[in-house]
Amino acid sequence: MAAQHELGAGPVRALVRFSGELSTKARRTRSRFQNRLATNLRDAFDAEGIDAALESGWSRFHVESPDAAFLDPLLRTFGVSSCSVLAGECEADLDTIVATGTALFAESVRGRSYAVRARRSGSHGFSSSDIQQRLGAALNPGATVDLGDPDVTVFVEVRDERVFFHEDRIRGPSGLPLGVQGHALALISGGFDSAVAAWMALRRGIRLDYAFCNLGGSAYERMVVEVTKILADRWSYGTRPRLHVLEFGPVVEAMRARAKPAYLQVVLKRMMYRAAATIGERIGADAIVTGESVGQVSSQTLRNLRAIENASSLPVLRPLLGFHKEEILDRAREIGTYDLSARVREYCDLVPQRPVTASSPEAAAAQESAVGFEELDEAVAGAATHDVRALRPESMVGASLYVADVPDGAVILDTRARDAFEAWHWPGATLRDLPQLERDFGELDRDATYVLCCAEGVRTAYLAEVMQRAGYEAYSFLGGAPRMRRVARGRSGID
Questions:
Q1: Rounded to an integer, what distance in angstroms lies between the CA atom of residue 230 and that of residue 244?
Q2: Last residue of one domain, picked from the residues 395, 412, 447
Q3: What's the rounded Cα separation, in Å, for the pair 217 and 489?
Q4: Same domain, 81 and 130
Q5: Sheet bearing 473-477, strands edge to edge
Q6: Are 148 and 113 in contact (CB under 8 A)?
Q7: How many CA atoms lie within 13 A of 309 on its CB side?
Q8: What are phi and psi of 288, to 5 degrees?
Q9: In this structure, are strands 61-65 and 12-18 parallel, antiparallel, or unpaired?
Q10: Are 59 and 38 found together in one domain?
């Protein structure tokens, strides 16, 4: 994960270390992996509009740029173990190393504890211990040596004829360079699990495209696009991921009409597997990736996973198989998908009570056969395909779903928790429970204009779309309650 760092001014040079896995590869394989890493890093800099020069080497890369902005994408490129911003360089001569190191670090260690750590590769007339002892002694006046827990660590790396000095090691994501382990199609729902599973597959060098089985309309699609774009824009340098969007509403309607209710979750997963495998084979993918974790929900018991497995003609990769939920949420926070995934409603939960938890492959397949594949085939044939890195989420849903101000005479339906509503709400607003409103909005006056408010302005977008389709003039307030309150303050001091 990218570390926090200051973006200073002036030319910056950094030393880039590879994931330890690369050093264990045979020379030919390692060369291929490192060439791919160099390609991905150059794409990272180009994608972010950063002027940075990359110098490739067998054991290290060097990057030089007018400022430190290149560190952010660099530290989100798989295959990078760590990097260090260089304080200076010199030639590989012991006296020069001591003189240069003293000039660079004498002030930063003064009045503090310090240690000198040296590493060396190549043939030289001195050892790493010689550097540590000589430079350590030279820095000693006004400072204290502490080899256990120093305030400042001075790192000296000798690489053949060059010597590099730095104080920090900023951790990267490690893993394998993206693209060296083939191609897979990830089932993406926008929730925590599927996004984290995709990230973990990317970290193993697997190039991903994505398939989204849409059960919730355009607003839901937009939220999924936003989650997928984090994976594509921030973690997929060197590739151009594509998102395949399938309209799964008719498939679910057919399932509800023809399958036993207890089997709906299992049949839905089989249908999704089958759709993903069909698209995966079409695009040349070697596997599909899912976010399933054993025992997390009813469809993910070991017996049910076995029951849905053979619906896919491609191997199914489950990176989260042994993860518990808190581990998944922590990883979502680290990779940047947590806040968006937290807003995504669960549309795949089709069975309110007593779903089957130990289906057999034969029983699940029988229920799937009872549904038939006509609607599924139509969903696959009609799939829309998008270049995710080129896609803009706002293009997925018309602006007509949102308002940035409250129209005169509009009815405000506030769907937040009661305590938030009581702390502040728009004058005259009505508190409504969102799930209940989704069920009962047909009882509302069709001649009124409705503005729906939630905490972020995302959850109510789906309901606004549904109400518009039913003939209501309904909107979600852009930015949710926080922005609505700012608008209220601007209206003659309303608060």
A1: 16
A2: 395
A3: 34
A4: yes
A5: 402-403, 473-477, 449-453, 411-414, 430-431
A6: no
A7: 15
A8: -115, 150
A9: antiparallel
A10: yes
The pair of structure tokens assigned to 414 is: 């506030």
- Active site residues per annotation: 454
Entry field: residues in the chain: 495
What is the extent of the structural domain holding 462? 399-490
AA letter at 286: D
Residue 450 CA neighbour count, 13 Å, CB half: 28
How many domains does the chain contain in total?
3
**CATH code, domain carrying 440:** 3.40.250.10
151: amino acid identity, one letter: D
For residue 400, pLDDT over 70 is answered with no
Q: For residue 296, count other CB atoms closer than 10 A to its CB.
A: 16
Task: Tally Cβ neighbours within 10 Å of residue 4.
Answer: 5
pTM recorded for the entire structure: 0.79
* Residue 167 one-letter amino acid: E
Beta-carbon contacts of residue 488 (< 8 Å; ≥ 6 apart)? 426, 427, 494, 495
Tokens representing 29? 């394989």
48, 135: one domain: yes
pLDDT digits (tens, 9 = 90+) for 249-280: 999 999 999 999 999 999 999 999 999 999 99
